Amino acid sequence: MNTYLLSYRFKIAGWLLILSAAVLTIVYSSFNFKISLPILAIYSSYLETKFFTTFTTNFADELILLLYLSGFFFVVFSKSKHESANVSVLRNTALFKAVFYNTLFLAFSILFIYGNGFVFVLIINLISTFIFYLCFFNWHKMKERAKSG
Question: What is the number of structural domains in the chain?
């Protein structure tokens, strides 16, 4: 698995992207931040349904989600400073648990959350697997350090 991981330096870039996204999230929600851009939409359904159309929209929310997604991607798929075979086992365990618990989270959401709340859950789901993975991976690494040290 290590051969497919990015360099450790991408982890730093990933955390910077996540931090940028968090700051933009606060600015976006507190001050109604807008970035008006003309965009190409393959499918758009607001007042009417359109295919392959262009229109001007607030691109801030898409930018924030892209920053979170790319940031978490870089953090999760970058090597640790001291990568070893044992770390690969921890990665696999953390990945399994992340997918498992994210699936439980989605099943719970499907059963008990409706309307705009469910749309919010779907947005959170874009990054929740990454967050679960990072929590489990770091937790397992701490447990390993405690056992060996």
Answer: 2
